[in-house]
Amino acid sequence: VWIVDNVVDKQRIYPQIKEAARLLQCGEVVAFPTETVYGLGADATNTTAVEKIFAAKGRPSDNPLIVHIARREQLESIVSDVPDIADTLIERFWPGPLTLILPKKEGVISDRVTAGLSTVAVRMPAHPVALALIEESGLPLAAPSANRSGRPSPTTAAHVLADLDGRIAGVVDGGETGIGVESTVLDCTAKVPTILRPGGITKETLAEVIGTVADGSAVTNEQEAPKSPGMKYTHYAPKSPMMIVYGSPSFLQTLVDKQQALGKKVGVLTTEENLAFYRADAVLACGSRHDLHTVASHLYDTLRKFDQTDVDIIYSESFPTEGIGTAIMNRLQKAAGHQVIVEGETHF
Ligand code: TXA
Ligand code: MG
Predict the structure, then answer these.
(1) Is 72 annotated as a binding residue?
(2) Hey, which family's this protein in (predicted)?
């Protein structure tokens, strides 16, 4: 169901996959599409290759990477144990947008991939190009999202090149990714399986299969060491400040009008339904409110588009935190630095 099958012009893409696999075997870094976002891949067993990922992205070295595999058997050489619950999840959701944190087996995956942790993050992407590339290279591929650190994750090859052209060996162009937000990261080493990052597979869906699931993705207490190192980093923030508005479109419009009266240029992030309603300097729609999957798939592209405008401030509509909406709001809140405005509460 997650397989993106509309992208592959096999005649065109196969030579790209072959060439990319060869580069990966030589220890180079290559970007490739997955069903979530583009990844920046390198041989996960080769420390020099993995270091090139951190260098190209400008990524802090203590933020570990996800290892991508194409077959269930590859897991045995990477992890020391597969708990029953993980087995059940693999059976049900792989290939797919679910990353599992499992105990790491010593000696195969580079310690640079796992940033010295005793656990490793693994996923099997549901994208024909990603799977073919992993198979062709014969390697487990370490791959974070293929953006410069601090930029939105890329959902097209053009996004990858905008951030990384000249810094990587290449990108396999498989068209637009499908889901548009990153995989769900689930810690299977915790007593209760814990979501460290909401994503393509929702908490509701996980709970149907394995019962209780904890949500560890909320902002952690600063004193506490974060379970997922990625949680402590500042994420994408647009060039101009962004605020999330909880309220009606007419309330949001009053906020726009106030800023414009102060001489500011204002952007609005909305959906198709309300696109014609707003009067502002840049009104950008991402998908339809009636299908939040369309919002997820266009979210990062829309955020990148705001950076090409000259707005001083962006107001974003909010979305229900159910299903994929949880992942959408998680990314929006990070982009907005958790600044919110609620209709009916006093601000200013
Ligand atoms: O959809 C995705 O997951 C994409 C595609 C390319 O597969 N990849 C991706 O990777 O989003 P990245 O590196 O941008 O995010 C990986 C997240 C980070 O938050 C990182 O801290 C966490 O996974 N992570 C990796 N290894 C971990 C570990 N051993 N324990 C806890 N968290 C881990
Ligand atoms: Mg990322």
Answers:
(1) no
(2) Belongs to the SUA5 family.
pLDDT at 111 over 50: yes
- How far does the centroid of ligand 1 lie from the alpha carbon of residue 144, in Å? 6
Please indicate whether residue 184, judged by its CB atom, sits closer than 6 Å to ligand 1: no
Q: Is 177 marked as binding a ligand?
A: no
Q: How far is the CA of 57 from the centre of ligand 2 (A)?
A: 10
Does this complex have an ipTM over 0.90? yes
Atom 13 in ligand 1: which residue has the minimum CA distance?
A: 144
Instruction: From 34, 66, 153, give the residue whose CB has the most ligand 1 atoms within 8 Å, as the site to mutate.
Output: 66
For ligand 1, whether the C-beta of 37 sits within 6 Å is yes
Which residue has its alpha carbon closest to ligand 1 atom 7? 39
Q: H/E/C letters for each residue in the chain?
A: CCCCCCCCCHHHHHHHHHHHHHHHHCCCCEEECCCCCCEEEEECCCHHHHHHHHHHHCCCCCCCCEEECCCHHHHHHCECCCCHHHHHHHHHHCCCCEEEEEEECCCCCCCCCCCCCCEEEEECCCCHHHHHHHHHHCCCEECCECCCCCCCCCCCHHHHHHHHCCCCCEECCCCCCCCCCCCEEEECCCCCCEEEECCCCCHHHHHHHHCCCEECCCCCCCCCCCCCHHHHCCCCCCCCCEEEEECCHHHHHHHHHHHHHCCCCEEEEECHHHCCCCCCCEEEECCECCEHHHHHHHHHHHHHHHCCCCCCEEEEECCCCCCCHHHHHHHHHHHCCCCEEECCCCCC
Q: How confident is the model at residue 239 (pLDDT cuts 50, 70, 90)?
A: confident
Give the tens place of pLDDT for each residue, 150-200.
999 999 999 999 999 999 999 999 999 999 999 999 999 999 999 999 999
Nearest CA, atom 21, ligand 1: 230
